[in-house]
Design goal:
The protein is of the alpha/beta class and 616 residues long. Strand 9, helix 19 and strand 10 form a beta-alpha-beta unit.
Length: 616
């Protein structure tokens, strides 16, 4: 969610995509997954946030080094994964924009639509950059009133030509991003995301360097043009604001006590659950664990915890009500809703210093983790009186943990996962939600932020060693509970889960199903990841559910899509406890409706339940 928050702050980023070079493909090194790509580092004598604001000569010297290494990847490596190619070439485009290579960059912007795979990005990606570049070419300037007016002319023409039914989510979130964009916000996000790693390791890695270049582009172009963008998008929204109908209510099944239900234990393998708000839908174990009677919970270092919720400090707990208001403002901005909370958030970003933004984002990371599991749990049990929640709490915010990971720690967490699996098996937990994912790059970031040294090859080696232990532990935990169905989120990086090696989404197991996210109308979200393991899609956009304390909020992500599938699976188990995980997966897949392009398979509770009854 923090990543989504930063994406909103930088919505409309000027990065666009270049088509892959076709020359000398036979001599290129083939890249089968993300870890096959090379790593580069850049020694730092200052904070990244200071380099971001440095004079042109200083920053351009840094950018030239980054470009040399990036060209090495583009020249020497063959990457089949389109999402990765897009990210590599987006970094190159940012460098071109800073270098004033307008004609080449304009051609690149026009090529982007051919590289996109989802309907909305095929129409919208690169429009902002294209309009900016056309204005630069026509006015021979990159600033000033004449340039701004020419940009507005081109951008308005491009936006008004878009079909509302395809791009409405993009238009609303892009307007919200433009409204929040500020110099302090950009610098504050760098202080949050990149400065800690530089402080510990003394270097930037290539991913961080590309992000910093993109932030420099936003400072140079995005901030001065944000008001024009927000105004144009606002007028477009006002002229077309017809919301697509919600398809999900007509598909949902609501069970009641008269349906002869069997209680179903639902595991929430997540950041914790506020069990106080779910009443009799919480499982009470006659054989309590070291954590208590509702499941298992672990501290960050892998020891048993008595807390079913991620523990907050007194200061964080005091900030929580304000955070809920800010989160609502963020969601409202994303949806084009001009609420009091949205107005307050806009004011906060326009008047705060970069240090204040940094403090807010640091708090946001903790509190979004705090609310996550409870929100997921509320979706999983909706409309099901037979549901009983089982808590399986741990901290998956790996890159934000304060200590450096070790093999011993990874093995200890692996043992905890096996204990969770044993608990699911011995208590007959029928379905478990896993709205989280981890990949090797997350371990690299974690090592970078905790002072693992400046050698990128050694850091990559250590990350892969740690990740393999983690991967094997998660896979073994699922395998050793064969009578439990595990449902996981596809991920929110708009990438192939298999290429990224995301765990658990990339695993191929008979009792595991991965879920992509669509919106209320069944349209693919811009953020949802995909891959051969992602076989169904569910509502993951503005899904309402509980947060700790009992308030309801809307959140978006594949984290919200996954428990919608858990909800369906639990209802099937409640109606027929003899079903096996593979039979439930089959009912879910056969009940889903495919989109015309074959990309989406939208779950349908009524169809799946009807198929179950027909089979009897």
């Amino acid at each position: 969610m923090v990543k989504q928050f930063r994406v909103l702050l930088a919505a409309g980023c000027l990065t666009v995509l270049l088509a892959p070079l076709a020359n000398s493909q036979d001599r290129k090194k083939k890249v089968n997954d993300e870890s096959d790509l090379p790593r580069f580092t850049y020694p730092m004598s200052s904070r990244a946030s200071e380099l971001l604001q440095a004079d042109t000569t200083t920053f351009n010297a840094f950018a030239a080094k980054v470009r040399t290494d990036l060209e090495t990847i583009l020249r020497d490596y063959e990457v089949a994964d389109k999402a990765t190619v897009r990210s590599l070439l987006a970094a190159k485009l940012d460098l071109q924009l800073l270098g004033g290579e307008n004609e080449a960059a304009l051609e690149t912007a026009k090529m982007i639509r051919g590289l996109e795979e989802k309907p909305s990005p095929r129409l919208t990606s690169g429009l902002y950059a294209q309009s900016l570049l056309e204005a630069e070419i026509e006015t021979r300037s990159s600033s000033g009133s004449e340039f701004a007016q020419d940009f507005a002319k081109h951008y308005q023409k491009a936006v008004e030509a878009l079909p509302w039914d395809v791009v409405q989510d993009w238009a609303k979130s892009s307007r919200g991003g433009a409204q929040l964009l500020s110099k302090a916000g950009i610098i504050g996000s760098v202080k949050t995301d990149i400065d800690p790693a530089v402080e510990k390791s003394g270097v930037l890695d290539n991913q961080q360097a590309w992000a910093l270049v993109g932030d420099r582009v936003e400072l140079q172009f995005g901030v001065p043009l944000k008001d024009a963008r927000a105004e144009i998008l606002g007028k477009y929204i006002a002229a077309h604001n017809v919301v697509k109908p919600d398809i999900w209510a007509a598909r949902e099944v609501t069970l009641n006590a008269g349906d002869k239900l069997t209680p179903v234990l639902i595991g929430i393998w997540d950041s914790g659950v506020d069990v106080s708000i779910f009443g009799d839908k919480v499982f009470t174990d006659s054989r309590p664990t070291a954590s208590g009677a509702h499941g298992l919970a672990y501290t960050d270092d892998g020891n048993p915890s008595p807390s079913w919720l991620f523990p907050l400090t007194a200061a964080q707990q005091q900030e929580y009500p304000g955070f809920r208001s800010q989160l609502k403002g963020f969601v409202d901005l994303q949806n084009g809703v001009d609420s009091a909370e949205a107005s307050a958030l806009r004011l906060k970003f326009s008047t705060s210093t970069s240090d204040q933004i940094n403090q807010m984002l640091e708090l946001f990371k903790v509190l979004i983790h705090y609310v996550h599991g409870t929100h997921v749990a509320g979706i999983a049990v909706r409309g099901d009186p037979a549901a009983r929640l089982v808590v399986a709490r741990f901290n998956d915010q790996l890159a934000d943990l304060s200590f450096q990971p070790t093999v011993e720690w990874a093995r200890k967490m692996g043992a905890d996962f096996l204990q969770m699996s044993d608990y699911f098996r011995t208590r007959n937990v029928r379905v478990v939600n896993m709205s989280w994912s981890d990949d090797p790059s997350e371990f690299e970031t974690w090592l970078s932020k905790t002072g693992a040294g400046a050698d990128p090859a050694e850091r990559k080696r250590r990350a892969l060693e740690l990740f393999q232990i983690w991967h094997d532990a998660v896979e073994t935990a699922i395998k050793t509970a064969p009578n439990t169905l595990f449902v996981c989120a596809a991920g929110n990086s708009d990438s192939n889960a298999g290429f990224e090696k995301d765990v658990p989404a990339s695993l191929h197991l008979p009792n595991l199903i991965a879920v992509g996210a669509v919106n209320q109308a069944g349209d693919e979200t811009s953020f949802t990841s995909y891959g051969d393991t992602v076989v169904v899609d569910a509502d993951g956009y503005n899904v309402e559910s509980y947060v700790p304390g009992g308030t309801k909020l809307q959140l978006s992500g594949t984290s919200m899509a996954s428990p919608n599938v858990v909800n369906l699976a639990a209802k099937l188990f409640a109606l027929d406890p003899s079903l096996t995980p593979t039979q439930v997966v089959d009912l879910i897949k056969r009940g889903a409706t495919a989109s015309e392009d074959g990309r989406r398979h939208l779950i349908d509770e009524k169809r799946s339940v009807a198929l179950m009854h027909d089979a009897k």
